[in-house]
Amino acid sequence: MAVIDIKVPDIGDFAEVGVIEVLVNAGDTIKVEQSLITVESDKASMEIPSSHAGVVKEVKVKLGDKVAEGSVVLTLEAADAGAAVAPAAAPAPAASEAKPPAAPAAQAPVAPKIEAASFGGTADVECDVLVLGGGPGGYSAAFRAADLGLKVVIVERYSTLGGVCLNVGCIPSKALLHVAAVIDEASHLKAAGIDFGTPQVNVDTLRGHKEKVIGKLTGGLAAMAKMRKVTTVRGVGQFVGANHLEVEETTGAKGQEKTGSKKVVAFKRAIIAAGSQAVHLPFMPKDPRVVDSTGALELKEVPKRMLILGGGIIGLEMGTVYSTLGARLDVVEMMDGLMQGADRDLVKVWQKMNAHRFDNIMLKTKTVGAEATPEGIKVSFAAAEEGGTAPEPQVYDLVLQAVGRTPNGKKIGAEKAGVAVTDRGFIDVDIQMRTNVPHIFAIGDIVGQPMLAHKAVHEAHVAAEVIAGELTGDKALASAAFNARVIPSVAYTDPEVAWVGLTEDQAKAQGIKVKKGLFPWTASGRAIANGRDEGYTKLLFDDSPEAHGHGKILGGGIVGTHAGDMIGEIALAIEMGADAVDIGKTIHPHPTLGESIGMAAEIAHGSCTDVPPQKK
Ligand code: FAD
Predict the structure, then answer these.
(1) Of 139, 176, 249, 298, which residue is the least packed, with the fewest Cβ within 10 Å?
(2) pTM for the full predicted model
(3) Cβ-based neighbour number of residue 1 at 10 Å
(4) What distance in angstroms lies between residue 564's CA and the mean position of ligand 1's atoms?
(5) Which domains does the chain have, with CATH numbers?
(6) What is the ipTM of this complex?
(7) 279 CA to middle of ligand 1, Å?
(8) Can you spell out the DSSP letters for 385-446?
């Protein structure tokens, strides 16, 4: 076979163009007209096709090289050196039409085709990857892409990286919940003969402690961005075309005051990680006594009477903090139970332990009005469904709106880039996190439920890897995909409630036959020693006839102290397809709460000796 040079053909008016994508590797078998590289001038990008079929011997160009007509792209062992076609450089399709490289079973989101705006201005900053939003999704994507050798810009409107999670979400709430847990734990010690007395709470110092925790983490992120040479552009970003984002610069330590200056960032690929924000009920008055989770975390003062609107995890976590600091709680929830998503038996344990915090738990009840009065916020209720309660209006010192979060998809000029956004503001993606526009990706809260930081981080890594693979020609990276089987959920209340995979309620509803292994913590030496034996660990195994008695683990739940720290083991077992013997025969250290997972598996298997003999 003849070895021939494949060269850049006539590329029209351009003397020299930059290589922005290398699409083949040495050893690849290629066809005539297959795209080899993408080049870009200041006016357009185009793909350079092969004039021959054959096997690539050596790729002679790399990303960033400048090429012109006649430059050698690669050497080829040509299948038939004579069978050449006269190649013509094909202008790369408009961004919204470009064909994505083959992805493993990636289902491109079906979305109406939106014509991207054409941006005629000049860019102030250029990069391989633009990341819009510096939350856990955004910074993880940016850092991974930088680690893979790409030039990355993050656009974030606030002064610090970390997004909702680090600044006004996961971390500050856990800093406060830790303090609340220690106060509660100390009070439990009375029964063991240790009385610390009534705690003296200095709310200002506590707020300072929380701020310090946030500062430590966000400062760390800023340092890591620097180490990776990731450029952070501060401001509100809006797409102005398929490859350009305009940033209205912002300033100030906390807010997003506009400076009046603008910058344009040009990008080859973009990752949208613009997150979500709290839903505000339209009839709630604008009053400092009505807050969302961000306002509640400011911890201005401790109210006497507090209403939590919405009985989900965020509301109940914040309620735990305020109640431990002295507030009396009411909670109103439209559904028939608190903490939806978790098995009811797990929630029951939490509810029993926490009954003392609440004056009223109003289920199947909706809030229909609210009025700011000098005495407080007067809130009216109605039955949400038959059987629901319709209590008399009540007056509260603080009302926390915790009725869900809404994605920021409609606020970023997505349509200018051709990116489709759903009516609710979500952006649909495939398993490679690619939107309907093949060079624009989206991750985190903005792509859908569950809105959790750990989901965002994993999606971020996938998007960054796919992009790096495409831009560097690394096929393994380019085929990355988000294919986690399960995503764990945790309520960091006291006790904690954690669950992953199939729940028992879902198994019942879906008619899935499961074998349950339930280990009560009343049989756990460690839980008893801790004075906290109210919890249990539950594992669910496939009990379908096809499993022949060796069913794999399908799900699990834990209620008890440190449940959130332990649920990861169950997630790993599900990912690895473990069965009850695998888990039960894994030696867990004694005495730990973690061994309750091994024992729950032994119970399912019928070999546990730490509980009374099981009925055959
Ligand atoms: P975000 O964290 O929302 O980040 C998006 C970023 O984009 C923000 O910094 C925003 O300022 C920026 N941005 C948006 N639009 C623009 C624009 N146009 N220009 C520039 N910047 C923009 N999750 C957990 O896993 N565990 C928990 O314990 C947990 N606790 C929580 C507690 C509370 C009180 C709340 C509110 C949330 C909690 N979450 C928790 C959820 C978690 O915070 C989110 O799932 C996570 O932050 C989502 O990450 P993200 O990167 O998608 O978006």
Answers:
(1) 298
(2) 0.83
(3) 12
(4) 20
(5) 2-78 (2.40.50.100), 125-277+407-479 (3.50.50.60), 290-403 (3.50.50.60), 488-605 (3.30.390.30)
(6) 0.99
(7) 13
(8) STT---PPPEEESEEEE-S-EEE-GGGS-GGGGT----TTS-----TT-B-SSTTEEE-GGG
